[in-house]
Design goal:
Oligomer: single chain
Number of helices: 9
Order of helices and strands: HHEEHEEEEHEEEEEEEEEHHHHH
Largest sheet: 7 strands, mixed
Strand content: 15-25%
Length: about 300
């Protein structure tokens, strides 16, 4: 009797069959799935520890990055995981999950309700999976183009966010402490949109960066830069970007000659462009383009 046949004996094979069947049904509904054992990926990685491959090598064993909605591929993955007793559902894109723990004195449900009260939103009655430890997985959709990162405890104790590169364990899976099941009072209901206020809380906070401001000094060394700033400030409508590029090219030439500091040139021109109505990011791209052209000139 080979190893695969042994794995198919008794309760273990029954758990495998159940997980495979549930995973196929989930894939048919459009959820990308992969096999798990005790809620972690069931196929061993083909790489040494510390690798950063996310499936680019073409081999299975990359956890959530193996996830697929193609039935034949789901079967192949489960054939490689004879000890699987569950399946994961990939998050990211339009679907995210909230993992609410209720153990060890932590109550993620209470924390989420507190967040809702503080920020003025209602937690929708969306598809909910009960976890073996007494917690819940809440499934939500987010608007197209919104990327929600994974986080653990950032929203509050007992609240983990499963976003891009994360996954939730599918209902019908086995965990070390029991089974993941659909909430008995809700059943298999629609996955609802996450409230806008909750989405804002889940998004990473922008990192503030200091804004350098340029102040003309009147020194001879900066007289040329003062003139270039005035060129940008006086640009007629429709010529702002062209004037900025011209001024930036001249400024970078002065930088290369050692007459002006690079940071002063960039700060002065960005500030002038923004005052003239250009977006800061657009101004920075134009100035960077002029710098590359000037540096590459013979």
């Amino acid at each position: 009797m080979n190893a695969w046949t042994k794995e198919r004996d008794g309760a273990r094979y029954a758990a495998w069959q159940s997980a495979f069947r549930e995973a196929l049904q989930a894939a048919a509904r459009g959820n990308a799935v992969f096999p798990t054992r005790s809620k972690v990926p069931a196929i061993p990685s083909p790489h040494q520890r510390g690798h950063n491959c996310k499936g680019q090598c073409g081999q299975p064993g990359h956890g959530v990055y193996d996830a697929t909605t193609v039935a034949a591929d789901v079967r192949c993955l489960f054939e490689l995981a004879p000890r699987a007793d569950g399946y994961g559902i990939a998050c990211g894109g339009r679907m995210i999950g909230l993992d609410l723990d209720r153990k060890n004195g932590v109550d993620g449900v209470a924390e989420l309700n507190q967040l809702a009260a503080q920020h003025g939103f209602t937690v929708p009655r969306t598809l909910t999976v009960c976890t073996p430890s007494g917690g819940y997985h809440l499934w939500f959709t987010v608007p197209a183009g919104v990327t929600i990162p994974n986080s653990a405890g950032r929203l509050g104790p007992g609240i983990d966010v499963r976003g891009t590169g994360g996954y939730v364990v599918g209902p019908g899976s086995q965990g070390s402490g029991g089974q993941y099941v659909l909430h008995p009072a809700l059943g298999e209901i629609e996955v609802l949109p996450a409230p806008a206020e909750l989405i804002q809380l889940m998004l990473p906070k922008p990192i503030p960066r200091p804004v350098r401001q340029y102040a003309p000094t009147g020194d001879k060394a900066t007289a040329a830069l003062d003139g270039l700033v005035n060129v940008v400030l006086g640009a007629p409508a429709g010529t702002r970007n062209d004037r900025l590029y011209w001024a930036a090219a001249k400024a970078w030439a002065h930088v290369m000659d050692g007459h002006i500091a690079a940071c002063d040139a960039e700060a002065a021109l960005v500030e002038a462009a923004v005052r003239r109505g250009l977006a800061e990011a657009e101004a920075q791209r134009t100035i960077a383009s002029a710098r590359r052209t000037t540096a590459g000139a013979p």
